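re the bet — no i am not wrong, look at it urself. input seq straight from the record:
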Amino acid sequence: MSIPGTLDAVIAEEIEPNAALVDTTASFPRHNLDALAAAGLLGLVSSEEVGGRGGTLRDAAGVVERIARSCGSTAMVMCMHFAATAVIEVHGDRATREAVAAGRHLSTLAFSERGSRSHFWAPLSTARAAGAAILLDAAKSWVTSAGEADSYVWSSRPVAAEGMSTLWLVPSSAAGLKVDAPFDGLGLRGNASSPVSAVDVEVPETARLGPDGGGFDVMMGTVLPWFAVMNASMSVGTAAAALEKAGTHATTTRLEHLGTTLADNPVTRTQLGRARVTLDQAHALIQDTITAIEQGRQDATLRVLEVKASAGDAAAAVTDAAMRVCGGAAFRREVGVERHFRDARASSVMAPTTDMLYDFIGKAILGLPVF
């Protein structure tokens, strides 16, 4: 399917006008999400069987990229929602799937933990049987939409089976869950990424997503491809916005004593040209990664490992170039470039981090076990 045309209207009427306020106040973009839900976009990747649009990874990546051009925080929330939905669609109960499809349910991932750092596939949190229920205990280090989403796709150690992890669908309203601190950080300031702790959080055994001990397979087979591609798309969208604003600044800023604009300077044009090539290379890799996944190509896993690292580095380089082109003006909020510069830095430290991905890629090249 094509990306719904209503997205342009939502961006123009709601997301773009709210973007600066979301950033400066570090407020969760609830208004933006309500507009996206009303347009049917929270249910973009839910199946038509439950009332969704039946969208694909390619559709989701396109939506995230376009939103990121206006508001990185909203794009990050949607990235995590789509990644969680991909799991819920395969392993979740029908009622939750229908709620997601109807735009009444926002979900997110809760994998990263204190102690395991970026090794998200090997949680330290526990799940133990207590009669017919399961009790969860954890210290999650970062959860996007913490306290704002309706549910968390939650990782723990297995209850009884062999394996690294088990996944659960945990209501954010469950007793024993606590958002430990509000987010007040450098970039993506409105995405409500905060630590979440769990003490004796009770869920039914039916809340399990996939088999006990089967979390690793779901993470690697479903979550990682969706998250990596959409995270890369967010990076590219963020960088594209910065580059566009830098170009506008270059063509409209006059050097009165020379009778020229910044765009007349060959150094400025070189910086913009190099940044454009870098951005287009990252975008091309995203498209090839999606094609590799769709076709089940032998190099699909390698592409998934490459795409987030490539786009994250590209976004950092492009937004750095945009700051240089705009000079001192770039440090003023009204130009808009510094917000994208800050948002672009987030990707490199999101698990799996850029450094870890390059290590994985190196292992793959050498024929070593990746995980």
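see?? The longest helix spans residues 215-252. told u. also The domain at 110-212 is CATH 2.40.110.10 (Butyryl-CoA Dehydrogenase, subunit A; domain 2). so pay up
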